[in-house]
Amino acid sequence: MNLAMNLIQPNPRNNLTEMYPGIYQSGHGDDHHDGPNLPTAPLNTLLGFELETYQVPLDQLLPSKKVPDGVMSTRKYKQIVSSINEVGLIEPLSVIQPDRKKPEYLVLDGHLRVLALKELGMSVGPCLMARDDETFSYNHHINRLSTIAEHYMIRRAIDRGVSKERLARAFNVNLSSINRRINLLEGICPEAITLLQDKQFIPDVTRILRNMKAARQVEAVELMIASNTITVAHAEALLKATPPEQRSDVKPAEREKKTAPIEQIEKLEKEMSQVQEKYQEAESSYGSDLLNLVVAKGYLTKLLAD
Q1: Of 250, 254, 260, 221, nearest to 238 (Cα)?
Q2: Same CATH fold assignment for domains 9-22+46-140 and 147-246
Q3: Could you tell me the pTM of the whole model?
């Protein structure tokens, strides 16, 4: 009966194109030897997405939330457009089909990517088919790329032959910004790098930290992390509060000459002799002055008591 119903109902994926056809083959047999060693159904683990990635027409995608006004003029959106135009869409869209009978798909994550694809004149986009209609995980349970991880990624791309100019176009930044990201950790001690490993900050923070010695770098990073403000303003304030001996950008002051002029030596001897005379004078009158004060105190105490 179930087999007959499946034959009668139309397949909702017939109008979609698989990006990697044949990579996943369901079934229990051992006849499938092509492709990677992927698990086959049934699975003991509940999957949040279907294993196939589909090319879905953009006109069949429906937004699940209203995109804020003016978002297409933001820096983040422009970076998405530049990245897709230069290297393609890296992260597929997350969609779900609310009604199996209709060729419509609700976008759970990737609204800005949909706008960017349309702006670039594309008609389809790669999509992952979700099995649960929820958008909380996409916005709250996500690991953002840290600044240091981005630095390593850029360095690896350059080592593999990617030009700085292409990276600048992909990130929608100028060439000097790429150079700052490449030299991000130059002059930073390993302990400070470890503390900043999973943090997000702008490259100018490490530019300021370079003006401190290693021990002060670690101390400054710990203070910024404790206050959750890894910013240029905080780093500059810590630099100004750094003693000169803990800064690497301050040259040690020239030592004064050990030999003093004859006039200064004579003046110092004269002042020392005057101080010694005053001390001897105070010492000679100290006993009598103390006795007079004790007698005066006793007299005043008796007078007030009466």
Answers
A1: 221
A2: no
A3: 0.56
Distance of CA 202 to the CA centre of its chain: 7
Residue 127 sits at the vertex; the CA angle it makes with 39 and 143, to the nearest 5 degrees, is 80
Phi, psi of 237 (to 5 degrees): -65, -40
Residue 279 is which amino acid?
Y
Give the residues across from 93 on adjacent strands.
Answer: 127
147 vs 150: CA distance, rounded Å: 5
Give the position of tokens 């609700």.
Answer: 106
Neighbours of 206 (CB within 10 A): 25
Q: Is 139:110 a contact under the CB 8 Å cutoff? A: no
Which residue has 């990677």 as its token pair?
A: 36
Q: Are 205 and 235 in contact (CB under 8 A)?
A: yes
Alpha-carbon span 227 to 206, nearest angstrom: 17
Per domain, the residue ranges of the chain are: 9-22+46-140, 147-246
What's the CATH architecture for 147-246? Answer: Orthogonal Bundle (1.10)
Going by their DSSP bridges, the two strands 105-109 and 61-63 should be labelled as parallel
| 9-22+46-140: CATH topology | 3.90.1530
Q: What are residue 95's DSSP bridge partners?
A: 107, 129
Amino acid found at 111: H
Tens place of pLDDT for every residue, the chain, 306 residues? Answer: 343 444 344 455 666 777 777 666 555 445 545 555 655 555 555 677 888 889 999 999 999 888 888 989 998 899 899 989 888 888 899 999 888 888 899 999 899 999 999 999 999 999 989 887 776 666 656 667 899 999 999 999 899 898 999 888 888 888 898 999 999 999 999 999 999 999 999 999 999 999 999 999 999 999 999 999 999 999 999 999 999 889 998 776 644 445 556 777 777 778 778 877 877 787 778 778 888 888 888 888 888 876
Contact 181, 149 (CB under 8 A): no
| Residue 94 to residue 138: CA distance in whole angstroms | 9
